[in-house]
Amino acid sequence: LGHVVRLHDGDVHSRLLLTYWLCFLGYWSLAKTQVLDEDEVKRMYSIHKEIINEVINDIIYLHTGKAAGHHSGDSLPAHDRILKTMQSFESILTKSKAKTFQQYEAQILVKRVLIAANHFSSADLTLIGDPLQNMDFIKARYETLVKSRSSVYYGSDMKEEDGGCATFAGGEFQETKIDEYLKLSAAVAEHFKIVLQLCFKYIELGILRESESEGLKLLHQVLKTSNLQRCLAVLNVLFLTSTLARGDITNVRPDPFRPMIASLWNRSKNGISVRTDNERLNKKLNLSSGSQEIINLSEDEPSSLPEANKKNMESKLILEEHVEYCDCVICTLCGMNPQMHIEAIFSKMLFYRYSSRMFRMFSERILKLSQETSLDVIDICSALQKEATDKAIEERKYPLEALDRFLHAAIRWLRRVSEEEKPEIIQDVIKESLKICLTDPIHFRWQWLTIRQLARTPLKIPKLEWLRLHVSPVKAGLRSPLKSIVINLASELNSLTLCSPRPCPTVNIEKYTPTAKTNRNTVTNVINNYVDTEMEEARKDFDSFSHLFYREWRFQICSYLGQVCAFQYKANWIESGWSAAYYFNEAMFISTRQLARMISKKSEESQNFHFKNIKKFKKAVQCLPPDLTVVQLFLDSRRILWLIKLYSGQPPLVVPVAFLPQDDVLLKRFVTLLAENDASGNLSKTCTDPKEYWQIRRKLDKKLKVKFLGLLCSC
């Protein structure tokens, strides 16, 4: 970027490259001052570069014009115009026979516009395409660009399989090809950033396995260079993916990336391991009868330890505290590169699971970015701003990646530890986070939606008579004062007797009077004389952006709206039974829907994978065969287990069954059930008698029914 800034003002191609980079970094106002005029475009004599210039204009307009507004309603005329233009450009570029660098760069820019258009309200994905499909296309184009640029710079005799790795492995710098080197470096940097963005996108959509796969491939490439910042950024993504996949309670396997992060921080300047808690841990475990060697946290040696020891070792890992003027490698690089400092503190925050202290340190680090050294890209952009116009341009002071990390951390922090903090601190975090989202509403759409939902007041959950008491499971022949209550609920469910647990102590509960048995679908009698503003805003948010499959937001808002409908808050848009079933269904299988949409072709039928409204949901349920009943279990954001029954010709039955404050006990019992089911599925290898096989299967079915009902009763 610095090289391009110093080039002559009359270099049209360099100016176009500079404009493209400013857009890539998200500095929209500065990019607007660099856009080529019509006369400059005519001098280029290239249809591809003309398309690039037009697409850049549209990108800037989307992020800075009125089209960037956060809400809702119908699609703006400008949106339709831009989408039609992108479709036209996409067709021209696809039909073009000449394969050039500019053609691929133009295709990448067109796809970036379509990805941004996915954040429009009521976006039509039949025109835009799935965002993951578009990002995967961009990644493939960058891989081709890196190989092609490598061949141009290093020579045409380079093997094709080595082209993609040439720049990672290093090589002799050729001053006579400085422009080609610049283009190659740009392609490599852009490829790295787009793959990192793809990994984060997978995480946001709940597709953790794909995120880990892409992250490991990227780490393999990055390790060929000496760029510790990129290595740490990839490790952060892998650590985040691993943490989300394992959870805090349900998966007891040790996280392999925690020791790796610890090994980066717990090193002295000469590279010798710090002998602190790890040495004491080795002595406790008696791993060696001789010299008590230190465990190398960056390798896979702990895998040979017993499971309990591995878990203990992981829980005792701590990060070494560094002094203010520490001269270790990480601290030295952090002093030179502000983005490296962001990644370093982000890794600490992931390590300590979004603790308030680390979140505060991370926030303070973000605030200091505007005062950094001239090596930072912000100051280069500031110099551009002064040269471009005499007027002051209001531009964001912080890099886009830093703001992405902050908003991600803020959402996780609000979800994990907000109940332990003072309300005024929580409100300040929400307020500042929403301010950041307003700086680029298109880019920060899902963060804005999620933070708005987390800021809403939790609903008051009524105290249901079959939920409020914790008793032992009802046994056959046992006379119990709860028998009538259990039978009443059983008659509603058309099932066996159930008895459910006491509510979670964190749930806000108000007194509730049991409903009359005559109204089959009414499970509560909560009556409000007004529609809460927050409920109405939540409904509008979901109606406008129901095509987005961001897991955190969709699960939270659909749980919230489902509770509103199930607990009979009065509103003209609530249909008894149908509304609650609709919202709870939209909260299920989010990542599965996204994966299905990603691999499907662009057509009206395949791009939905969600019901746009209750009317379409009704139509689908009414198409069920008369002899088929769909039964669903859904655990919402307040940890209420819901039973949903769908059948043709009747309204759905939606019943809150139990409060489940913990997962671990249930998980063990479900694992046992699944193991027995898997074992019976393999009977065909050993059991040759069909009658005996089906006898065993039927016994297992009965056993599973009894165990499942006992599971609900003992919750």
TrEMBL record:
Designated name of the protein: Separase
Domain of life: Eukaryota
